[in-house]
Amino acid sequence: MADENGNVSNAISGGVFFHEVIQGRDITVVLPPEVASALYGLPAPSSTFTGRDAQVEELLHALSPREEQQAVPQPSRIAVAGLAGVGKTELVLQVVARALRETDWFPGGVLFVDLLGYDPERLLSPERALDGFLHALGISGEHIPDGLQDLQRLYRSVLTAFAEQDRRILVVVDNASSADQVAPLLPADGMTAVLVTSRHTLDIGARLHDLNVLDTNASIALLHQALLQARGPADTRVQDAPDAAAAIAKLCSGLPLALRIAAALLADTPTRPLASLAQALRTEHSRLDRLRREDRAVRAAFDLSYQRLSDVSARLFRLCPLNAGPDLSTESAAALADMDDDTAEEILQDLNRAHLVEASESAWGRWRMHDLVRLYATDHLKQEGPEKQFAAHSRLLELYRTMASAASSHLTPDSSGPPSPLFTNREKALEWLENERANLVATVTTAHETGAGTTAASLAFSLAAFFEQHRYFADWITVTTSALATFQQASDHQSTGRAMVNLGIAQRELRQFEAAVMLLQAAADAFTEAGDRRDRAMALDALGVVQREMRQYDESIDTHTEAAAIFQDVQDLRGQARALNNLGSTWGEIHQSGKAIPILRQALSIMRATGDRRREAMASANLGAALRKTGQFEQAITLYGEAITRLRDTHDRHGEALALSNRGTALQHVQRFPEAIKDHRQAADIFQKAEDPHRLANALGSLAGAYSGDEQHTTAAELSVQALKIHRQLVQANSAVNAPELARTLSLAAWVRRNGRHDLATALTMAEESVAIYQGLGAETSPVLSAHLHMALGLQADILDLLGRHQQADTIRRNGLPPG
User: Fold this and answer.
1) 589-626: string of b/e by CB count within 10 Å (b at 16+)?
2) 269-301 residue pLDDT tens
3) How many CB atoms lie within 10 A of CB 67?
4) Does the structure show a pLDDT above 50 at 551?
């Protein structure tokens, strides 16, 4: 065809032709006006879809055609990866359905193919997929070549032509198992969009999106929607049994495939209660078998992924559940499989790409399994046999034992040698302990099931300093209770006694005083019978602290005195310093500073000489408290400052908070209220994060006092109410232990109001309640409580005077105040 200028060109219309058909200088491919068949084969999206709004919006945002210049180029390839059954295909179908509503997004239509990549019998080759695509695009069979390269060349040319004529197509490639399987199906024009799903994270130059399981609320919603779809609005079982629905959601671990199977099982029998299915799923060894129906099964879905693993990857995958905790490190996995760390890391990354393990989001080198995948791996563990399982678990246990002991050496300086070189410093040791805490607890508490109970129980001693210093008392009690049972069964009397001491200390910190006294006294008696004087002193020292907390001051003084004498006799300087520090604290608490100060100075001197920085800080703080009570406020403030610095250096946040609170009180005495407020506020924040309600309430009360001194009376009153609320809750839990603290806080709240000359009626009520509590506790028999009662009565009289009720105030002063 020649134009008016004599230029010659050839035009081919009515289809797309492969190979040369006309000789000419320019060839223009004219596409069919419409390719409706490109929409064929796209599965319908489910009407029961929930919990994925954010992911849908993210993918739609990536797919939307935007002409404006982008700082980050718009991706033309998007890959959605995730565990089998997590809902990758359904997510993509929902996104495609939304995208097709936008008429200008993909006017050329959608190409969809399921590559069946994980089914070895049905797996679709790239050639077959391309052949199907070309037919869908309107290319007649006689023009479709046979070889992969020719198929790919024609396919990409057609897609480019569609895109250039503003008929952009969306290509959806579902269930791809490898980059080799999907790569030939990827357009090369940069304009045609592609969505790929796979159980593997594929390296195909795509924007990657990892799909996780549903949360509990979304899981319950999916269960509810599926039942409504199957049985109609009359099926209200999810609303009627929310606890059972939540249990099913938890047992399905948020996996949409498992949830849909559970819903189908319930739909099969509309009279079946949710509690029945929840009960059936609770048994771990049969849960995967229960999660199946004629047309689908969780185990079958996992089988397809497992069968693709190499032998070495499959072995490590099977061994992972031998770790009793929720995750494991690369080093732990290497110990299980008896391989080096680098090899283990490579295999774990392969398993992560297959979404059979998940890499931690918080720290590199840690891995976890989805709960149902863990059960699946456990089912396959039997392939290893009992002997290989025991050997693998023993290697892991030895790693934990060695590392925990090394980490502990950085927390408890010991004259027997320097800290272990396995950790470069205290910070690294603490990091390891924090990361492995849940695993270590689970290892000890399940040790009786593994045949390595005694070895695992010894971990409890290595963890004691960590649990105590970082206030993981619930974990400490759990671990020590389990270890104690193991030692008793093995008739290991020394380890039994040491475990009893640790358990007693943990119970003391949780204010379970009576139980702690029984254990510590029993341990002390057992050590006496065994002739072990040093351990008896250790038990006595811990017992004396409990007695002080119970306001049994005479007993506490006697107990600490005996402990200090024994430690001195056996030449244990660290033990002697600890006992003296505790003894001085008891004297200080009953306002016998003249006796407390020299004892605390002696304790501080020994701790400095032995290099125990944390204990030195505690002794400095206790000496500061004694000096504060004698009016030596500036010296006390200096000592508190030294203690705070050392406690921060040793990462003892709780000890730091105690020192801050005490320094705040000393600062109030010298009217440095802004500084006091800052200290008390920091202390309260630490106690709140540590979930220590008792000390949090005390810190809030002290903070109220500082604000009142700074003439900020409204804030002070509000804080005192917060403190009172916590103390009332504590009294409900244990009145005998917590009632004195409530009485003291009531007096403080009344004082704050009296000091601000407002809400005096409430102040009087608070003071009266405080007096009543002290009298009910028999304050006349306790010098400390008697002193507090004296102050509460004086406060009550002052408030009555402010209210103009002078006669009543005078009566209290004449008759109500005890001597002193």
Assistant:
1) bbebbebbbebbebbbebbeebebbbbbbbbbbbbbbb
2) 889 999 999 999 998 888 888 888 877 888 888
3) 6
4) yes
Which amino acid is present at 724? L
Nearest to residue 698, comparing CAs of 654, 759, 736?
654
Other Cβ atoms within 10 Å of 405 Cβ, number: 16
pLDDT in tens, 98-111: 888 887 888 888 89
pLDDT at 173 over 90: yes
Ranges 93-107, 231-245, 355-369, 774-788, most confident: 231-245
**DSSP characters over 442-500:** HHHHTGGGTT-HHHHHTHHHHHHHHHHHTT-HHHHHHHHHHHHHHHHHTT-HHHHHHHH
Give the length of the chain: 820
Q: Which residue, among 705, 706, 698, 740, has the nearest Cα to 723 in the 3D structure? A: 698
Partnered with residue 714 across adjacent β-strands are none
Half-sphere exposure of residue 566: CA atoms within 13 angstroms, side-chain side: 23
Side-chain half-sphere exposure of 613, counting CA atoms within 13 A: 15
Pairing assessment for the beta strands 358-359 and 366-368 based on DSSP bridges: antiparallel
Taking a C-beta distance cutoff of 8 angstroms, is the pair 729, 757 a contact?
A: no
In the sheet that holds 366-368, the strands lie side by side as 328-329, 366-368, 358-359
Fill in the amino acid letter for 694: H
Q: What is the predicted pLDDT for the residue at 164?
A: 84
| CA–CA separation, 721 and 759 (whole Å) | 13
Contacts 24+ apart (CB under 8 A), 305-310: 305/84, 305/118, 305/199, 305/354, 305/355, 305/356, 306/356, 306/376, 306/380, 307/120, 308/118, 308/177, 308/354, 309/351, 309/354, 309/356, 310/350
Q: What pTM does this model have?
A: 0.78
Give dist(CA 267, CA 195) in Å, integer. 33
Distances (CA, A) of 251 to 86, 276, 280, 306: 15, 13, 10, 22
